[in-house]
What does this fold into?
Amino acid sequence: MKLFTHYSRVNILASILALVLGSIGYYFIIRTVLIHQLDETLSVEEAEILSHIQLKGQLPEPANYNDQQISYSPARAPVDRQFVNITRPDPFHHNESRSFRQLVFSVRAGGQIYTVSVSKSEEETKELQKIIMVVTAGMILLLLGILYLANRLLIRRLWRPFYQTLEELKGFNLSSHDTLSHTPTSIKEFRSLQQTVEQMTGQIRKDYDMLKAFADNASHEMQTPLAIINSKLDLMIQDQGLGEQHLRQLQAMYDAVSRLRQLNQSLLLLTKIENHQFEQTGLVVFAALIEKKLAQLEDLIKAKHITVTTDLQPCQLRMNPYLSDILLGNLLVNAIRHNYDKGAIHIHLQQDMLLVRNTGVPLSFDPSTIFDRFTKSAQSEGTGLGLAIVRQICDNYKFTLSYSNKEGWHTIRIGFSSLVV
It folds into this structure.
């Protein structure tokens, strides 16, 4: 859920709760005020009755109006003065009743104690309450509507700089030196966020450029001494005066230097792929590229007497040609290197998928780590980076990559439907 949506929901729900509770309180306050007004009206009637008795010494005439009744009844003793709510049948509607507010008090007239009941209808009060509550409900709905529109329009506009900064961070590319664009804003927190993002991305780019330069320089500088060591070892191996033991040691050194050169090149390649330094793309015809790579590896295939079968359907991808060559080369070399003598390789290509299957001994490690760096069997002479490079290329192009082993066949599957042309 987006922050804006979450904030709007919480804000509106809190407003509804506050308005509902406020309306309930408002209702009881209005009712209390109106009942108090009724009580004051009844008190006025009481004062008039007492005044009439004081002046004339007798009770006024009883009254029986639609909204007000005054009645007297003889009593043996005075009663406590009190206000009560009563219900009486409606004389005009026999099946209905009406609510009254009644004042009961005692008076003495002509030497007799009387209980006086002055009642006034609450219908007008209820009608007034209804009108007030309807108006209040309308105001609440209006306020909620205004609040909703304010959240949808005004608050969204206020949060626009934040969302633009978020989108800029999503599209941030280390290999590009384009500056981030920000929407001018008067909100202090958003300005601080924009400044922090600018400083952070600037420092990241600086560190990236330094790391990239270091990797390039280190790789370049390592190639020269490795080449010198390699050439010197070539000359020493050709020396006829060396004994067999020295030749074996020199050969071991020669092989170690070769592996070091290969390791250096593979790590540099991985770093370049991770840093998106292969942005150039072209149309790659995969069937033709597979046949080309098989032709290049023909000597290795013949040396192990491997049978290769292919099922190549048309497939064209838009990707970097160099990376596509590395991808297929590593897959095929891996299938050859880890195969039996007189083993088999089957390559199946269709429009959105590539399968490379080869016979070979079961893995001596966890299959889930087969694409991790430096994962290899004890008998392998490789660097353990071939399939790691394959995974990095697949991740770079959002390809799906999986491995399975069934009935003596090792299968690597690549799904690349997202880039099919």
Q: What stands out?
A: The chain has three domains: 3-143, 189-273, 280-419. The chain is about 55% helix and 20% strand. The CA atoms of residues 284 and 317 lie 5 Å apart. Residues 3-143 form one domain.
